[in-house]
Write a structure and sequence with these properties.
EC number: 6.1.1.20
Oligomer: single chain
Keywords: Aminoacyl-tRNA synthetase, ATP-binding, Cytoplasm, Ligase, Magnesium, Metal-binding, Nucleotide-binding, Protein biosynthesis
Organism: Haloarcula amylolytica JCM 13557
GO cellular component, one term: cytoplasm
Bound molecules: phenylalanine
CATH topology of the largest domain: BirA Bifunctional Protein, domain 2
Shape: flat
Strand order of the largest sheet: 11-14-15-19-18-17-16
CATH architecture of the largest domain: 2-Layer Sandwich
Helix content: 25-40%
Protein name: phenylalanine--tRNA ligase
Amino acid sequence: MKRPQAQVAVLQAADAQEDRRIDDVAADADLKPEAATRAAFELEADGLVSVAEETLEHYELTDEGDQYVRESLPEQDLYEAAIDAGAADGPVQMGQAIGASGLEGGAVDIALSNYARKAYGEIDSGEITANPDADPGSDPEMLALEAVADGRVEDADADALDQLERRGLLNVREETVRSVQLTDDGVTALMEGVEAAETVDQLTPELLTSGEWEDVAFTEYNVEADAEDVSHGKEHILRQTANRVKDTLVGMGFSEMEGPHADAQFWINDCLFMPQDHPARTHWDQFALEEPEEIGELPEDLVERVRSAHKEGVGPDGEGYHSPWTEDIARGMDLRGHTTSLSMRYLSGHQVGELDPPERYFSVEKVYRNDTLDPTHLLEFFQIEGWVMAEDLSVRDLMGTFTEFYEQFGITDLEFKPHYNPYTEPSFELFGTHPETGEVVEVGNSGIFRDEVLTPLGVDCDVMAWGLSLERLLMLMYGFEDIRDVHGTLCDLELLRETEVMR
Ligand code: PHE
């Protein structure tokens, strides 16, 4: 049998009885590891060798971990100082214990949080106690640090290792090690005789400059052979999905809106008929900025019409809120909590001039909210904003648009629930079912703008509008359960690398 030179070398270096590491095989065969790996995969595709893969973990202390293992953990220092100060018998002033421990700067916080976590004692209103039963001398994390430093990771407690990694005292590096072994067919082939085919499997600069490339025979590609995994940079799936959403909406006839992330409350709240004492306007929800002067001019005539809508209402039967309204508050500058601020700018005619129905606009942009982080909430997320301006719109148009939009992402089980927004009537929340947990997840909010919003803007036909969450769409598409796996500092790189992209 004739095989390319590299394959022959790997066959000859491989063993029938035991797995040999590809690096060793490569050294024996006088090949680069990548060339040996490629040859091994090609031989495996023809059943002549088997390739096994194993992931090895290498533990390395960070500089901070290294310092602690040579000295001591900050919480151990604190415990010792607290004991000396008599904290085993009752609470003592924290300042006294910290002073005696010699801890300074960031080390104090590190000591305190780990002290409490390890139940070395209690910390309460400026006082500290020391638990006499605690045994910092055999602290599992210190023992694990020592084990790693001495190259005895196998002696370390697994939970302690995890904890050290979380504390940034330890890095874990993963290495994929491949090994090959001859199969029965491989042994037979070798016994029958394998010769190096006189083909060239790599085009080299020498072949090119000498002109020899014109006369040699090239090895054929085996496109079915496995190949080494290379994890290269790629577009984040959130960005990919954002772009796909944009393409989809453009395909449905929408144009894109743009506008500021930090904007006047006027555009974020007041145009939306949100009373100035509305709870959603407080700092709990929206981030307020310190320099409202940066806003510049607000359109005077529009300010007046919005003020009047809030105070007196719109139309003969209109009721305003009868609550105070001041331009000062409207001029407050916030990070937008929704991109409906953009819809207001566009609908008002101030962004792209007067609009002629029918019109459709969208944006896929970041919004900011002072939420509590949890698996489905981040402080910032992407909102898919959109609106359609036309005569005689109804809830059926709204539902139809969502059905058509979400279908393109494989989501066909939308549910709608009546809802309340100060600026739309009727209003609906949208839900989808999470493919993994089966839970019903809110994916967006929508409605038809009230006259109190549209009349001041000078719009005299219907406008239906929505704000959908891009991250929640992603959760339904890919089955992510924790949004923090996808972005932020805790994101799961493996998951991001391996998620198959749907097109
Ligand atoms: N602004 C709403 C939100 O952030 C979404 C929405 C936009 C609802 C337009 C109705 C109309 O939840």
